[in-house]
Automatic annotation (TrEMBL):
Taxonomy, superkingdom: Bacteria
Domain MacB-like periplasmic core residue range list: 21-240, 458-602
Compartment(s) where it occurs, according to its Swiss-Prot or TrEMBL record: Cell membrane
Protein name as it appears in the record: ABC transporter permease
């Protein structure tokens, strides 16, 4: 029986090759995109899942009021340790680290590396894969270091670097600290919970005990160090809510009143931390892509149903004869389902080939390495097979049972073979398809518009031709600042460099903050995000001054100077002239305002412009970047700057990027969504138009005699074309009326995640409508042209 079903199904597929090819292409496109999104979602949700006791692992987050008091991912350094020591019935283990970046060297090799200064238990606590060394005792002593395999390979040419010595440059003059590598771990994914603080992740892990990086000992011991990332492992049965009371008690016991009143420690599950980090950016991305992939699969299913129900009317006599000879409805339905499953199976195989072919491209679009089909797990293969089988059933179920219900006598006579058979159903399906395609198309258009708005909006500073160097050596004292200033002056001698500035932050985020008292003597200080830079920061970034000068630009350094932005001036009561006014901190420090810079976006457009203060780097020595404004950013210019850098800062790596690249990195998720939405739009339109092509082809075959009669009676090509396009015009109009309100609502919700966003406008909606209508017109015209030109006698003489 099964063999017979397959044989007949194959014959019918071969008999109507063009319709089979259309269904095959639509299903394979849908399967391929669904497979891509499925693999992407699986990979994103698997982040951090490999850690030991993952269900009990939590990362500490700081809910600060106001938010600008510090970053949410850091908290007081001793907090997690004190939690474990004073509440051992709640906390089983803890791990903390202080993130830094500096030069790590061995022999003649020197590289800039991200370093985690932390506790020595993280390898055993999380069960990290150790390639070389003892997993249960990764650190032999306080002078031992754990490194990643990629670092070992880069530094020593081999992953097995056990026993080799590395030297970590500190921020203290002429001080390096030597460490002996005691373990080499497998590289952690960039989005691992261990990589908080630096997108690239950490490659070197050293103990806090005996550490000399800052010159004052272990940075994990001081309650004033509010820059540590901490994680805890809870005891069995303990929930984060059980730590609310103990957390408040610890803050009350060890921190100043200001912290107690404005800081709440929260506990985020490590297992899904990556999905919810950064305001649920990844979770939103997954949701949007999932909805789009479902839309595309549904359109492929609808195409199959539409074409199959229209084409099935050619087989009514076959169905009638089967019933006469004793076939039951379920047997006839199974015959049609078998054809659907065969096409779905072929589509699934083709989808695997398409996936493997397009995998590198989709990896770039989604910003992650998509695994090869040859590396799928058994569960992934099983899931894909189930999806193919389910889609095959959904696509074939309606045509199968619809045809099987037809009456025997009517079927034998072949009367269902009319042009209008099932017309209402096909129209509804086409409306749904058009609505989905228009919805995705409008969404992609607005996403593109928002991305264009982001990259073309006046942010208040100029990011073009800015080369950002990682400032080495990091010597955070007055002598270190003088050394970097000498390097800066040396680079300014190059004809390619027009200006340069030394700073701790760039216009991508501001990590620090200071408390300033308003001039009206209000007792309540205002938390103002702040960082240090030099007098050339404003000129290099082309900031616009509202009044005064940028830290007395081009004049001698005067201690205690500060520049504020317009928002800070307004909040501090300095709307009517700020230059020369003095601002105080609750601790008694005094700053003199030298200028007010016009508001600019010192973070992303997701955030409204906040108050900002910039102090001189000589007042608070600490720097990370040396930014150069270039006349032109050519390979030759970069080479000459590198050559000069090696003369001025010998032994230090030449690490650089360009500000426009850093700006683009801020909007990585938007750029990924733009590419994914554009891809989805193209795929959905291909599926819809293939479906329209198939349905029009069937209608033309059914109405060939009608067209012939119309031609005999004098109808021209335009009349015949209008006959078909009128019907689709109404369908497209109804689809637009359905999709426009939905698109407006969902896109408005997405745009609300930005403080600054483009207006939707009617133009995008109207443009999409006209594009869809124009493409359908071209498709219908192309398909009807051949039929309209045929000799009407040829159609009329055969009955």
């Amino acid at each position: 029986m099964l063999k017979n079903y397959i044989k007949i199904a194959w014959r019918n597929i071969v008999k109507r090759k063009s319709l089979a090819v259309i269904n095959l292409l639509c299903l394979s496109i849908g399967f391929c995109f669904a497979l891509v999104i499925g693999v992407y979602i699986t990979q994103q949700k698997s982040i951090n899942q490999q850690f030991r006791n993952i269900a009990h692992q939590y990362i500490l987050r700081s809910n600060r009021k106001p938010e600008d008091m510090g970053t949410s991912i850091t908290n007081p350094a001793p907090f997690s340790k004190a939690l474990k020591e004073e509440y051992p019935n709640l906390v089983k283990n803890y791990y903390r680290y202080n993130p830094v970046t500096n030069v790590v060297s061995a022999g003649d090799q020197s590289f800039r590396e991200n370093i985690a200064i932390g506790d020595t238990n993280f390898v055993s606590m999380y069960g990290l894969p150790v390639l070389y060394g003892n997993p249960e005792r990764a650190f032999d002593n306080v002078n031992a270091a754990v490194v990643t395999a990629s670092f070992a390979k880069k530094m020593f040419g081999t992953e097995n670097a056990i026993g080799k010595t590395i030297a970590v440059q500190t921020v203290v003059e002429h001080v390096k600290q030597d460490y002996t590598i005691s373990a080499v771990i497998k590289d952690l994914p960039y989005n691992s919970v261990f990589n908080q603080g630096y997108f690239e992740g950490y490659t070197v892990f050293v103990p806090g005990i005996g550490n000399k990086y800052y010159g004052f000992g272990d940075p994990l011991t001081g309650w004033t160090n509010n820059s540590c990332v901490a994680m805890v492992e809870l005891q069995d049965g303990v929930l984060p809510k059980d730590l609310i009371g103990p957390s408040k008690q610890l803050l009350a016991k060890y921190t100043p009143d200001f912290f107690q009143k404005n800081l709440t420690v929260e506990y985020a599950a490590v297992k899904d931390f990556y999905l919810h980090d950064n305001d649920n950016a990844v979770e939103r991305m997954i949701t949007i892509l999932s909805i789009i992939s479902i839309f595309i699969l549904m359109m492929a299913i609808f195409n199959f149903v539409n074409i199959s129900t229209a084409a099935a009317t050619y087989r009514v006599r076959e169905i009638g004869l089967r019933k006469v000879f004793g076939s039951k409805r379920v047997q006839i339905a199974l015959q049609f389902l078998m054809e659907a499953w065969l096409l779905a199976l072929a589509g699934g195989v083709l989808a695997l080939f398409l996936y493997e072919t397009t995998r590198p491209w989709f990896s770039g679009v989604l910003g992650t390495e998509m695994i090869s089909v040859w590396h799928f797990r058994v569960q992934q293969y099983a899931g894909f097979v189930l999806m193919v089988a389910a889609i095959g059933f959904l696509a074939g179920a309606y045509p199968a049972f619809s045809v099987a219900r037809s009456g025997t006598a009517i079927s034998v006579k072949g009367k269902p073979q009319t042009a209008n058979s099932g017309l209402l159903f096909r129209r509804i399906v086409l409306i749904v398809q058009f609505s989905m395609a228009i919805l995705v198309f409008i969404g992609a258009a607005i996403v593109n518009k928002q991305v264009h708005f982001i990259f073309n909006r006046d942010t208040g500073y100029n990011k073009d031709q800015l080369m950002v160097l990682t400032a080495f050596p990091k010597q955070w004292d007055s002598v270190g600042v003088q050394k970097m200033d000498a390097i800066k002056q040396g680079l300014l001698q190059l004809p390619e460099v027009t200006s340069a500035t030394l700073s701790f932050d760039l216009p991508d985020r501001t990590q620090g903050a200071m408390n300033l008292l308003p001039v009206n003597e209000s007792a309540r200080p205002i938390v103002v995000p702040s960082f240090v830079g030099d007098e050339d920061y404003g000129q290099t970034f082309r900031l616009r001054m509202k009044e005064g000068n940028f830290l007395n630009h081009k004049k001698n350094f005067v201690p205690g100077q500060i520049v504020i932005n317009e928002t800070a001036a307004r909040l501090l009561g300095l709307d009517n002239g700020a230059v020369g006014k003095q601002l105080r901190t609750p601790e008694g420090a005094v700053y003199t305002v030298t200028g007010v810079v016009k508001d600019y976006n010192a973070a992303t457009l997701r955030e409204a412009i906040k108050p900002l203060a910039i102090c001189h780097v000589k007042d608070a020595p600490g720097y990370r970047y040396l930014t150069l404004k270039l006349k032109y950013a050519t390979a030759g210019a970069v080479a000459r700057i590198k050559q000069e850098w090696q003369k001025l800062s010998p032994g230090n790596p030449f690490e650089y990027s360009f500000m426009d690249d850093k700006f683009a990195a801020l909007y990585k998720s938007e750029l990924q969504l733009k590419k994914a939405a554009t891809t989805a739009t193209v795929l959905s339109l291909i599926i819809v138009f293939l479906g329209v092509f198939g349905v029009v082809s069937i209608m033309l075959m059914k109405r060939d005699k009608e067209i012939a009669v119309r031609k005999v009676l004098g109808a021209g090509l335009a009349h015949i074309f209008a006959l078909f396009i009128t019907e689709y015009s109404w369908l497209i109009l109804i689809a637009n009326l359905i999709s426009w309100p939905l698109a407006y609502y969902f896109i408005s919700q997405w745009l609300k995640s930005y403080a600054y966003y483009t207006e939707q406008g009617i133009s995008a909606y109207v443009s999409v409508a006209f594009i869809i209508f124009g493409l359908v017109c071209l498709l219908v015209a192309g398909r009807t042209f051949k039929t309209a030109l045929e000799n009407p006698v040829k159609s009329l003489r055969n009955e």
